[in-house]
Write a structure and sequence with these properties.
Strand content: 5-15%
Structural class: mainly alpha
Radius of gyration: 29 Å
Largest sheet: 4 strands, mixed
Number of helices: 18
Distance between the termini: 114 Å
Oligomer: single chain
Strand order of the largest sheet: 2-3-1-4
Mean pLDDT: 88
Order of helices and strands: HEEEEHHEEHHHHHHHHHHHHHHH
Number of strands: 6
Helix content: 55-70%
Low-confidence stretches: none
Length: 405
């Protein structure tokens, strides 16, 4: 009898916990969104059930955009509110603490009516379930941690972590959130201006990621490598991820340190084997190091992940040409040209293919096109020189022709 009762009751409790958790997540994020709408002029975005997934179903109410991910389990209390952070410190503080205060007030009311009221026992049990959901929500949001979100390659902080930053140094906190705003907008120069102010005062893997990525995006490769070396022995450095190793590899490639680039790309792929960019870059580096079979394997996986990149077809065509598989190379070249006829790697591969077939004049045209669209592309100068040697030399002008001229 007891077992049958538990089988019937436990699913009901589970359903009620998830329903109340969903409601509390909404209340918590609305409590961030409402003051954010009052204090900022830009769009305010709420995420319910996920951290920053713009593919979730969308509801737009004026400047407020709500993304809700339908799911069976809301007990993890995933929610987020994104808004413009270029506002005075006091207003930022109000937006940050308003949600915990609102939910804490709800918790106090539920606690009172659950344990000290004369309400019906079943109502009190329901209120107790709601109180449990509120407690879980507060713990999740106020526990200091970093959150990986889908809309960005950087980490963001839980409310609890942000409060710690506020307590330590309000100017550091403002510099971090303003830098994050510039970083997400692609303004890496301004992001760096603010991040440099906190570099020697407060550093963790999320700030490290933004600074490193900014250096790479601005092509300050030597500085990026020195910056990385400065923090390699610190404890939090062990937490850097696949994206960071990929950025380090980009700096290595820019500095033509291809063996070190391969080491960093191996580390990146070990952490995330299905990343398109990392697979493409490792294929490219393998080509440079003349590891053509390994290059092709990586580029095959890159194509499997994303078939819309002309670059990958160009790099794989190069691998196939070096492996003596001209038929496969030509298929890749045709696919690449269909995607982007002005793509430098594809035109380079076409030029090499035509050169190998002895069609030197069209080969030169393709190689010139590759150089036009990417002046720094490897191999193009080498093959242009080879092709020029094969082209017929202009005949010297005769004395009669000179006299006629």
């Amino acid at each position: 009898m007891y077992d049958a009762f538990m089988i019937a009751v436990l699913p009901i409790i589970w359903i009620l916990l998830n329903i109340t958790s969903f409601i509390i997540i909404c209340i918590y994020e609305f409590s961030h969104a409402i003051p954010a709408l009052l204090f900022t002029r830009g769009e305010v975005t709420m995420y319910i059930g996920i951290y920053g997934d713009n593919t979730a179903p969308r509801l737009k109410l004026g400047r407020l955009v709500i993304h809700i991910r339908p799911k069976f389990n809301y007990l993890k209390n995933r929610g987020m509110c994104i808004y413009k952070t270029d506002i005075p410190f006091t207003l930022q503080f109000i937006i940050l603490v308003f949600a915990p205060i609102v939910v804490l007030a709800i918790a106090c009311l539920l606690f009172h009516y659950t344990f000290f009221s004369t309400l019906n026992i079943y109502i009190r049990v329901g209120l107790g379930i709601a109180l449990t959901s509120v407690a879980i929500n507060l713990i999740v949001n106020l526990f200091p941690k970093k959150l990986a979100v889908k809309f960005s390659n950087r980490l963001v902080y839980s409310d609890g972590y942000e409060m710690i930053l506020l307590g330590e140094n309000s100017s550091n906190y403002l510099d971090v959130i303003v830098a994050a705003k510039f970083y997400d907008e692609g303004d890496f120069a301004n992001a760096q201006l603010h991040l440099r102010k906190v570099e020697d005062k407060f550093m963790d893997e999320s700030i490290f990621r933004m600074i490193l990525a900014s250096y790479v995006e601005l092509k300050n490769y030597s500085i990026a490598k020195k910056f990385n070396k400065k923090f390699m022995r610190l404890r939090w450095y062990k937490l850097i991820g696949a994206y960071d190793y990929c950025n380090l590899a980009t700096a290595d490639i820019g500095l033509q340190d291809y063996k070190e680039a391969l080491i960093n790309l191996d580390k990146s792929i070990k952490l995330d084997a299905h990343n398109f960019t990392t697979r493409k870059k490792r294929g490219y580096v393998h080509n440079i190091l003349k590891n053509y079979e390994e290059a092709k394997q990586d580029l095959n996986k890159a194509v499997f992940i994303d078939e819309s990149s002309a670059d990958v077809y160009g790099y794989r065509a190069f691998s196939n040409l070096k492996l003596g598989r001209s038929g496969e190379a030509l298929i890749d070249i045709e696919k690449g040209l269909a995607l982007d006829e002005n793509n430098a790697p594809v035109n380079l591969a076409l030029g090499i293919h035509l050169f190998d077939k002895g069609n030197y004049k069209p080969a030169m045209e393709s190689l010139k096109k590759a150089k036009k669209f990417d002046d720094s592309i490897l191999w193009v100068d080498e093959y242009m020189a080879k092709t020029k040697e094969k082209l017929p030399k202009p005949k010297p002008r005769t004395k009669k022709a000179k006299a006629d001229a």
